[in-house]
Every structure is written in C-alpha cells, then in structure tokens.
Amino acid sequence: MRHVLRLVLVGVRTHVSYMSRSPIEITFAVLVPLVYATLAVYLFRAAGDPDRLLTASVGAGLMGIWGSVLFGSGGAVQNQRWLGTLETLVVAPAPLALVLLPITLATAVIGTYAMGATVLWGVVLFDVPLDFAHPLLFLLAVPVCVLALGMMGLLLAATFVLLRNANALANPLDTPVWLLSGLLVPVTVLPAWTQPLSWALPTTWGARAVHAATSGGDVITPLLVAAALGAGYALAAVLVLGRVERRARAAATLALA
Amino acid sequence: MLAIEADALRRTYTSRTGWLKPRRTETEAVRGVTFEVAPGELFGLLGPNGAGKTTTIKMLNTLLLPTSGTARVFGHDVARDPVAVRRRIGYVFGGDRGLYDRLSALDNLRYFAELYGVEARDQKRRIAELLDLVGLVGREKESVEGYSRGMRQRLHIARGLLHRPDVLFLDEPSIGVDPVAARDLRRTVADLSAAGTTVLLTTHYMAEADELCGRIAVIAGGRICALGTPESLKSRVRGRDVLEIEAYGVDEERLDRVRRLPGVRGASVEDRGTLQVVTVQTGRSSAELHGPVLTALDGVRIGRVTSREPSLEDAYIAIVEEAAGGPDRSATPAEAEEPAV
C-alpha cells in the first residue's frame, strides 16, 4: 500500500512538473477560465446578484479544473503515445491503472492554476471580496474536489482508449458536464429529469462542497459523496483497464497500441 | 531454465479500410518463429526492415499478444503472465523519443524507478550507479531536451536497467548514434552480458552483431532463415569471394546484367552519398570475373575495385536474398509495417 501511494505521489509530481513546463499549455489552461470568469461576473452583476461574485469566480475556476481533466485525461494515453513513453509505461510491472492515475490526477492539479487565476482575476479586476464562508474548509474542499475529478478522469482515460476518436468526443462533453454539475449555476434551475445525471457526477458534489465553503452551507457531506463517487469511478476504470490492456495487446490497433 | 523460449510464434495484423464496405486485410508479420536463448547469452536478431524483428521482440516483452504459438521468459508465459515477465525484463529501443524531455535525467529515472518497483531506499544508490555506468554523471540535472541523441540513448539504457532485469531487450539501440557513442554503447552491452544479463539485440549493423553476439538469428519475411554463431553464418559464404566496386550512376538494369553473369551468386548496391558501392558475391576465383563484371557495368564511372573475404554482412545478404527467392535487388521482402505500440 505504501508503495502504491508513493508511486501515485511521485507520478503526480512528475507529470505536474512536466505539464507545468509548457508555457503554452499553462497559458491556455488559465486563459479560457478567465474568459468564463469575466462573463460570469458580468452575468451575476446583471442579474442583480452582486453578493455572489466570489461564487462566479470560484465557479469559473471549477470549470477550468473540469476542462483540464476532460482534455488532459481524455488524451492521457494519446499524449504518452506521442511522447513515445507509452511502451515504456506499459512494459513496466506496475498495473496500467496506477500508471494512468497519476497522469489524470496531474491534469486536475494543473486545473487548480485556473482556480487561483480566476479568484485573483475577480479580486484585481472586479473588486470581488474574498469573504469565504469557511476559508479553511475551502482549502480542504478544493483538493478533495481535484482528487475526485482526477479519479473521474481515470475512467475517462480508460474509456477513451476504447473509443478511438477520443479528442472529438471530449469537446461535446465539456459544456453539458459543467452545466449538469452546477459548476456555475445551481442544478436546481435545470429540468427535473437531469437531476439523476447530476447526482451521478463527482463534479456535482465537488462543486457543491466548494460553493458551500465559499458562500455557506454543508461542506463535509457533499465532499464525502464526491470522494466516494470519485473512488467508484476509479474502481470502474481499473476494471475497464484490465480489459483494455489485453485488447490492445491482441488487436494492436487501439490507442494503446 | 532457459532465459527466452519462442515456440512457433506467429503474429498477424488485421487492418480495416473503407467506411461503407469495410475491407479487412490480414498481414502475417511473424510466421512461426522458434528459438531459445540461454541465461547470460547475447543473442542477435538480424533482418531487413519489416522482417518481423520488432514484432517478435514486442511479443516477447508482452507488448503484443502472439496470434499463435507460445513464448516464455524464465518460464513465465508472455501471454498469460505478463506482469511476472515484466518484472524480469528491461526494454530499450532506439531513437529520440520515449523520455520526458522537459524533465531532467534524474527526474526521469526517479519516476521509472517507482514504476519498476525499485525500493525507495535503493533508488538513490541504483540511479547513481547507472548514471556512472552510462557516463551521464554531472549532466543528470539538465533537461533531457538539451541532450544529444547518444546521451538520450544512454539514458534509455539506464532506464531499462533500473530494476536489474535478467533479460534486456535492445531494439536497434544504436540507430542514429555517432560512431564513438555507438562504440561506448557496445562496450556497455558487452559489460552487461559479461555480468550475466541475457541480452536480445536487434540491429542493422553487422559489425555490431559480429562483435557482440554469441549467436545470431537472421529473420526475413517473418521466418528465421538462419541461426548460429557469427562464424557459422560466415561459413555459409566461405566458398565465395566478394568484389567491391566503387561506382557512380549504377542503375537496376546494369545490376541485373551483373547478376545474370555465370559465377555471380548475388549483387547489391549501397549508396554512400554520391558514391555507390556495388558488392558482387562470386564463387572462388573472383579475379576471373573482374572483366565480365566491369563490362556489365559499362558506361558507369568506376572507382576502386577490391576483392576480399566474405564478412558477416555478406553472409546476411546471401541469407536474406535466398529467403526472398534468389538474388534479389532489394533484399527487403515487403512485410507489414510493425505498428508502434
């Protein structure tokens, strides 16, 4: 168990370090959420809801984390293939899930750059006050949310290996998931039939916890649900990856091969 | 127990083309390869591009499942027990890729040490040993981006040795490496073999195979065409002489004329910049063929003409030509492109 934890930690450090050294990737990871943050702040102001400007900044940051996970994790295998590292990773005795999990967690960690940027953007440009309802719980909620999303990313990475045109599939998933998860606007404003979908997403519960830490409410319960759902997604990914690896070795045509 | 056993290994690639009426094409890349490698042996796998070398190596190192046949590494079946195989093997391939080039050599090695299950308390010492072995001490904190190809190749070898593998698969490790770096690489491989590591090496460089390998299998068209020590392979062409002719502007028509001459066993041409080197394998007494060969090359500017004993390369060319159905100009049977796994 200690070895597994160490492998994940060293893997996350390696991949965060690798991803952070691409100025272009970091710029884009931060820039898009800043546009979202600007639009959100104006929308909230126009709606006569100036008290929730911090929620707008934090929501845009969550969208940044989700975007990073979706595109980073979805392309995790393909990116390693382009780097030429996939063979060396697959031929290592570590299970494929433990090889991929640090990569998907790293994409979520990279997403936190966006969270920092959108909050700072709000403070500097729009005088958004940093009046978190539970500042310490906010500092707990964001990493747990990142962890849950990283684990969700593992399932994305696993299923996207089976689906060849993963990059094309990532695009249409971006907006529906942040809408269904209530990253920016509450899920209660959505039609009732969407509720089960929302509940099944770790992003919903992670966002609920982060928003509660920002503007008040129960933080711990949604945080625990997010962590449990994330773990469930990761478990499903482990099961899928066992099949994926075998299929890739047999067919030599999957993204893995 | 044998280090590597391959028994009637076959691998077929299936590709699909077309949308409305998809067409399946099957290509046999490896067609029943059988060989054994003893522990500590340095075994070479030689063959032209597309012969099935990389596919064979990828079946042995668990990256590809065989379509049929079996393979074992120290008794572990590569298809059924891949994790046990992976614990005992290292895999190094040639080229620039396969490393996190925005990170340092040290960061790369630390990460792979974790992946390969090197105990945390041993990592520092093991990485230092390997950096010393491959001559990267003092450069280990620099970003790999700034490394030459030779340095990257040495880092690849260090990565492949982190977990002290019993079997090392080296897939064209010296490709694109300068002669000095290639010599250092050969020395490292020889040292590893001397220390008891079993090495399976694929290469295009005959001198490398001749110098390093205890036994060599020549693979062409997905089949092993010859297997033995370098000396025994050379003995296949011992009854021959080799004429080497420097020339400029040799075309296929003239080469065919040479091939049709009585007493000529094979002819090939190699481009070296603007210069071409025509190699003609003849029976004994190549001197008698000087005149007819030069006549067949009429109209071409000729440089130095030399006669020599056959080398491993000549044996290899002869074997591959035979496998291709007689002396053939290309000596590269068209086979499936081996996909990059």
UniProtKB/TrEMBL annotation, chain A:
The keyword Membrane applies. It is found in: Membrane. The chain crosses the membrane at residues 26-44, 56-77, 89-116, 136-163, 175-193, 219-241. Coiled coil: none annotated. Keywords: Membrane, Transmembrane, Transmembrane helix. One of its GO terms (molecular function) is ABC-type transporter activity. Residues 18-211 form the ABC-2 type transporter transmembrane domain. The keyword Membrane applies. Its main location: membrane. It is a multi-pass membrane protein. GO terms for cellular component: membrane. Pfam families: ABC2_membrane. This is ABC-2 type transporter transmembrane domain-containing protein. It comes from Streptomyces gardneri.
TrEMBL record, chain B:
GO terms for cellular component: plasma membrane. It comes from the Bacteria. GO terms for biological process: response to antibiotic. It is a peripheral membrane protein. It is found in: Cell membrane. InterPro entries: AAA+_ATPase (IPR003593), ABC_transporter-like_ATP-bd (IPR003439), ABC_transporter_ATP-binding (IPR050763), P-loop_NTPase (IPR027417). Residues 9-246 form the ABC transporter domain. GO terms for molecular function: ATP binding; ATP hydrolysis activity. Keywords: Antibiotic resistance, ATP-binding, Nucleotide-binding, Transport. Coiled coil: none annotated. PANTHER family: ABC TRANSPORTER ATP-BINDING PROTEIN, ABC TRANSPORTER, ATP-BINDING PROTEIN. This is Daunorubicin resistance protein DrrA family ABC transporter ATP-binding protein. It comes from Streptomyces gardneri.
